[in-house]
Design a protein that fits this description.
Elements: E1 9-13, E2 16-17, E3 23-25, E4 32-34, E5 42-50, E6 55-64, H1 90-107, E7 131-137, E8 140-141, E9 157-161, E10 169-171, H2 180-195, E11 210-218, E12 223-230, H3 235-248, E13 252-259, E14 271-277, E15 280-285, E16 288-293, H4 302-316, E17 323-327, H5 333-338, E18 344-349, H6 352-364, E19 370-374, H7 377-380, E20 390-393, H8 402-411, E21 415-420, H9 423-433, E22 437-445, E23 455-462
Parallel strand pairs: 4-6, 8-10, 12-13, 17-18, 17-20, 18-19, 20-21
Antiparallel strand pairs: 1-5, 2-3, 3-4, 5-6, 7-9, 7-11, 9-10, 11-12, 13-14, 15-16, 21-23, 22-23
The protein binds S-adenosylmethionine.
S-adenosylmethionine is lined by residues 297, 299, 328-330, 333-334, 348-351, 354, 376-377, 394-396.
């Protein structure tokens, strides 16, 4: 094959999956990354970026599909940014996720001998998400079969964004990763908005009324929260929508209206109004109850979250006498989960409302041995008078701040359980911690089927 050139199209064989979940072809030894491809596919792809040592291609057509392809469930899988691995058999998804963790440890952290276990799968692999957020847009992205159809309304869509476009949404009729009733609620909201005289919010002009629909589902109680995010306060309009929804769907326990005119795409309101029921729904993790408000953080795959926390318990190996410190404690779910396994559990978290929720959740469960501290960990740790036996660390995707790594090394707990949603920062942080700690083993847990994302739990034990 001649040297690969930008804007030219080529027939390429996908030989592997690369970091970020893209297919990898290697014409003349040059790595070419192509989205939505699977090893074994022969594809026709256009080169859209060309660098010295790699290139990026856009899939034009699958010429010969890989034998690893399975039937995806969702009609939008080739366009929506959500579940790009849907046609890759689930068993293979798990193998690639495990390999991604191992390769990150090797290449980024230089950690070659750490045992990485098989990924604990998600069960189920569809209808697993307990929270979905759909955007309203006056610019609907048209599916190929809709392009010629005059009857299709083009100036409104409610659904998910097409990757690479910031203001166009696919009008999603059915999202397969959300429990079924969510799709019926979504459809009812769509019908109401279309019939209302009010337009969807436009991200370019910052005009329009309807911004987001956020749905939360409680697995334990099979109840729903509907949170309608609007640009202005117009109670007469949203109350009508609320009446219509609650009459039709008795499973709806809470209807909220978050109001924000912020120009960024955030859905948290400057004002929040409870239109129906309580301002939260309840969920259970194991035997513990949790109050979840519209804007609280809660792991989005409830059943996998229980498996994740069970792994944290197993690695922590508590006997009931230990002091545990949980860094990045969110709404207190890990401290509460560990509360009856330890003497005392402390959590540190930067978001005030999460700390408020954590305290309320401990109270809801009658727990008295959890204490939650608010602040940036790197500022709170130096003044802390606690010497923990075990530390749990569950940072955001960017991983730990270098100062925090130094503070943890200085505190020197006997054991660290590190929970990570990003294998790259996991590898980087473990390498730094391995100065004083042996990385014993890693258990990946799948929280996000059909994506390349993977959660991991690592056990670190202090060196003698
Ligand atoms: C991955 S979440 C973990 C939440 C919790 N462990 C759970 O399982 O639900 C990370 C948390 O770290 C918090 N966070 C981020 N940066 C922080 C910082 N510098 N100091 C304290 N908390 C921080 C975020 O607000 C978020 O709640």
């Amino acid at each position: 094959m001649t040297a690969i050139k930008k804007n030219k199209t080529y027939e390429l064989d996908i030989i592997d999956l690369a970091f970020g979940g893209k297919g990898l072809a290697k014409p003349d030894g040059l790595p070419v990354f192509i989205d939505r491809c699977i090893p074994g596919d022969r594809v026709f792809a256009k080169i859209i970026k060309k660098k010295k040592s790699w290139a990026e291609g856009k899939l034009i057509k699958i010429l010969t599909p890989s034998s690893f392809r399975t039937a995806g469930k969702c009609d939008y899988r080739n366009y929506c940014g959500g579940c790009k691995w849907q046609e890759l058999a689930y068993g293979l998804q798990l193998e690639y996720k495990k390999r991604h963790v191992i390769e990150s440890l090797h290449h980024i952290g230089g950690l070659k001998d750490v045992p990485v276990h098989d990924v604990i799968p998600s069960d189920p692999v569809y209808e697993f998400r307990n929270k979905m957020e759909f955007s309203c847009s006056p610019k609907r992205w048209l599916m190929p079969e809709e392009l010629e159809n005059e009857a299709v309304i083009k100036d409104f869509g409610i659904g998910l964004h097409v990757p690479g476009t910031f203001d166009k949404v696919i009008d999603i009729r059915r999202c397969e990763i959300m429990p079924g009733l969510g799709n019926e609620i979504l459809d009812e909201v769509r019908t109401f908005i279309k019939a209302s005289a009010l337009p969807a919010y436009d991200l370019k002009t910052h005009e329009g009324f309807w911004r987001f629909l956020m749905l939360r589902h409680s697995v334990a109680f099979d109840t729903w929260m509907v949170n309608m995010v609007t640009r202005e306060k117009r109670l007469e309009v949203v109350s009508n929508l609320c009446d219509r929804l609650t009459r039709k769907f008795p499973q709806i326990e809470s209807v909220m209206n978050n109001i924000t005119d912020a120009k960024s795409g955030v859905s948290t309101g400057q004002e929040e109004i409870c239109l129906f029921g309580k301002d939260h729904i309840q969920e259970k993790l194991g035997k513990f109850l949790f109050k979840i408000s519209a804007n609280s953080f809660f792991q989005t795959n409830t059943r996998s979250c229980e498996k994740l926390y069970a792994t944290v318990s197993r690695y922590a190996g508590l006997k009931g006498t230990e002091i545990v410190l949980d860094l990045y404690s969110g709404t207190g779910t890990i401290p509460i989960w560990l509360s009856d396994q330890a003497k005392q559990v402390y959590g540190i978290e930067i978001v005030k409302s999460a700390v408020v929720d954590a305290k309320a959740n401990a109270g809801l469960n009658g727990i008295e041995n959890c204490e939650f501290l608010e602040g940036d960990i790197k500022d709170v740790l130096p003044g802390l008078k606690i010497l923990p036996d075990v530390m749990i660390i569950d940072p955001p995707r960017v991983g730990m701040h270098k100062d925090v790594v130094d503070q943890v090394l200085a505190m020197g707990p006997g054991k660290i359980v590190y929970v990570s949603c990003n294998p790259a920062t996991l590898a980087r942080d473990l390498e730094m911690l391995s100065l004083n700690y042996a990385v014993k083993e890693i258990q990946p847990v799948d929280m996000f089927p059909h994506t390349f994302h993977i959660e991991s739990v690592a056990l670190l034990v202090k060196k003698e």
